[in-house]
Structure formats: C-alpha cells, structure tokens
Amino acid sequence: MRLTTEYLPALGSARQELVLLHGWSSGREIWRRLLVPLRSWANITLIDLPGCSPVDSDAFDGDVATVLTAVLEQAPPRAVYVGWSLGGQLATLLADQAPERVAALATLTSNPRFIASSDWPGLERHAFADFRALFAKSPAEALQRFDVLQSLGSKLRDRRALVSELEAVRAGLAPQDQMASGLDWLAELDLADVLT
Hints:
- By secondary structure, the protein is α/β, with parallel strands linked by helices.
- The chain contains eight helices and five strands, in the order ββαβαβαβααααα.
- Strand 4, helix 3 and strand 5 (102-108) form a beta-alpha-beta unit.
C-alpha cells in the first residue's frame, strides 16, 4: 500500500527526523501551523493515514498492521514519532513493534485506550456506538459533530474558531468509507500494557 506522504527538509541544520501522525477525521494538513518552528531544526515527514483521513487511499483493507507497515516503508530509517489522538496510538504501536526505528515517541491528546471500562476512564461504549452509527448513516454530519466534541473545554469564542479551523483542514475532502476502520481501531486498541 502506498500512502500519501510529504517530506519537508529542515530550513536550518537538521538535528532530527520527525514523523507526524494525525488523528481520526483529519489528515496531514492538521500539522501545517506547526511546520515553521519545527522545520528550523528537523526534517518532517507528514503522512495521510488511511482509516483516519478523508484522503482516499486505494487498496486499503482496514487492517492496522498494514497501515503500520506502510508507514515504516515510507518513513526515515529512524525518527521521532509524534502522534495526535489515534495517531498517537498508532505511533505507540510502531514504537512497540519496531523500536529500532523509533528514536522517541511523543503523543498529544492520546490515550492508550479510548473506550471506558470498569478499570479505565474514557468514552462510554454506548456513546461511541451512537457516534459510529451516525458515521455510518451520515459521515459528513458525524465529522461536524466530532469537530464540536474536539472543541469542548475551550471558551465559546475559541470553540467556534477551533471548529472552523478543523473544518478548513478538510476543505474539499469528503468523508471516506475507509474512515470506519479508524473508528474500529479506536474501539479496539488497548495499549496500556504496551506503554509499561
């Protein structure tokens, strides 16, 4: 499987290779605002992750292992992986499965487990099932709802700006059926033991 990738060399002296992995509902564009400060010292690899991104990927079978293999095929031989949300979970799996390829791991707003259980806080399973059903019925509406959920905790004025910004990142991109795979991963992945 060939992923949509973008390699951006450092504008100054490159001290590090960074691979940035986005979360569900976005693509590599979500990182755009961070590139100027990061590129002053790092080479950057941006990847659109099938299963998570509205960017269409051909020959995608929905398997997380296939995606991880494709990421490693297109990433530098050794890099710091930075993952946001589900991208953080995938980066954690990469660090576990290919530690020789991962110099360091940083996750942003990422949990080892997304769904709540008796011994783990998270989104209640019934709420997730409702969202999953909404995505199956109306993907565009589900993405709008997801943007609003991501803005919770911000001041109202900031929330509106954040929702607009999240929508702008996907401008012109329609939800893809393959994004249902990313929702499956959010429901199934449990990396608590991996992180130890």
